[in-house]
Amino acid sequence: MKQVARKLLRKLGYEIYSINKEKAAAGDGVTELCRTLDLPILEPPSRGEFQARCSPLFPPASTIPSDALAGFSLGCEALVRDGSMQQYFQMECRDGDLVITDDYPESHYYSRQRMLETIYGGLLGGLSGKSVLDIGCSSGYYSFFCARQGAERVVGIDARPEHERQFSLLRRALALESVASYRNLDMEYGLERLEPDFDVVLAQGVIYHVYDHPRFLRNLHRLTRGWLVLEGACSGRTDYLCKAELEDTSNLRASIHGPVLYPSLPWLVRLLRWTGFDALHYIRLPSDIEDRWGYGKFWRVMLACRKSDR
Q1: Which of 302, 276, 278, 307 is nearest to 289 (CA)?
Q2: What is the pLDDT of residue 24?
Q3: What is the CA radius of gyration of the chain?
Q4: Which of the listed CATH numbers 3.40.50.150, 3.40.50.740, 3.40.1000.10, 3.40.50.1110 matches domain 29-54+105-307?
């Protein structure tokens, strides 16, 4: 049957190519591939070191009163059920108040924020006095960490206007209104409207929600004066094969356009260097964290990239 299909397709003018099935890497696949790609690996600090220099946004049993929620036309039960908020916080309602924390075992505070702290404290020498652009900020979780750690100005942008009220509520609760701001902007086609005025650009959970990777990365290169932090889901391949999909545009965590492209790590590295970034670093997931996202098998990666002078 395969032979018949090949002959028919060739008669119609198509050329047939096979995609090799990748074998599971023996040992530490991350170390091997990073060596091949000339990517230094950064190891996150221990949990104790991290906690000593980076507190959670909301310690356990923190409370946002019901009148504060009402001020932004938000209801407690709706927030607890919200998929975007659930990505970052454990929440419950008590007499109409929102009890919220990001300090729990599976929290991004202990996983991704700990990886980011490796970049902030090591490569960047801290965020004090720096300006930060957080692309795909959602409700502002990582924007607020940057502001709390000394950034002079943080601008969070997201394609979903629904996130603005959540961002505003949390910004008020954390007393960061003079530092952090929100803009509703399309990450695929709207970045050209921003001025290149940022020391650090964060683009987490975004690259796989866009289709035109070269255009997106060239925009990131234009917008930063210093460093880019790029994190997101990948194809899981160790060659240049990307994976195209159609996302449900009604999902708040999905693309607003539909067609998306999951890159491979080698493709990302090649594009970043072509765009004009150097000093690329791979940030490893902390070894004491269960790898639910697939960082160790290239289903997700985090890279820190310096803008070159050329």
Answers
A1: 302
A2: 47
A3: 21
A4: 3.40.50.150
